[in-house]
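Input (structure):
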């Protein structure tokens, strides 16, 4: 069985393996037996895996789409957008990056890379943003992820006197600038490398965000970097 599995480079599931084993041995082989043996060996098809079933939780609170795709801001710290994206490294291990972007100058105000997509990841990102821009009271736009719909997150925004805005269900374009940044980061850095450790991934993300903020020139910012445009506005 293992030789067939390896020859197919792990693309065979238990059904196809059973067919090939029957042909090879000319014996009646029960596919449930093959499935059981694959579980014992800890192998499975690298394609067509069963999708995990997630239970949709009821949001504790939601906000209207106040941003309404108006992605321009007249000054820094008027409109922020935020999101979390996933990266892979090592042997299928995952890391999650949470970030906040200012729509005025496209600067990444704060970011946190962690091992889990959880509340602390998002809450810390907001705390760092408020530390980086003390006294600011921007609108913060996000999707309807469980972190952003939590009562504690709303409490944090209320204490900072910030306005909350959320994308409509299934409308990624409502948070277009954040999605655009994720695409840029992954195309210009992440997809170009293979990462074996969390540390390697973290270092490259930190280096890229510094490059993006301070050195990457943008035509829409009059040929300046985000931080140059931000400093000039200030």
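Output (sequence):
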């Amino acid at each position: 069985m293992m030789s067939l599995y390896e020859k197919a480079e792990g693309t065979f599931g238990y059904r196809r393996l059973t067919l090939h084993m029957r042909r090879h041995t000319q014996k009646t082989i029960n596919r449930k037996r093959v499935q059981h043996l694959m579980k014992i060996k800890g192998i499975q098809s690298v394609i067509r895996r069963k999708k995990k079933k997630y239970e949709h939780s009821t949001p504790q609170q939601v906000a209207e789409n106040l941003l309404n795709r108006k992605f321009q801001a007249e000054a820094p710290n008027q409109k922020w957008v935020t999101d979390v994206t996933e990266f892979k490294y090592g042997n299928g291990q995952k890391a999650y990056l949470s970030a906040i972007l200012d729509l005025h100058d496209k600067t990444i105000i704060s970011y946190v890379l962690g091992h889990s997509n959880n509340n602390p990841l998002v809450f810390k990102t907001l705390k760092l943003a408020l530390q980086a821009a003390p006294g600011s009271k921007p609108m913060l736009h996000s999707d309807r992820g469980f972190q952003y719909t939590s009562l504690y997150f709303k409490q944090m925004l209320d204490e900072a006197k910030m306005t909350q805005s959320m994308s409509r269900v299934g409308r990624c374009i409502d948070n277009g600038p954040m999605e655009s940044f994720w695409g840029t980061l992954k195309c210009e850095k992440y997809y170009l490398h293979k990462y074996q450790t969390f540390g390697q991934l973290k270092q490259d993300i930190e280096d890229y965000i510094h490059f993006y903020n301070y050195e990457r020139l943008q035509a829409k910012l009059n040929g300046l970097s985000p931080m140059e445009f931000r400093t000039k506005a200030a």
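Notes: The mean pLDDT is 88. Residues 2-41 form one domain.
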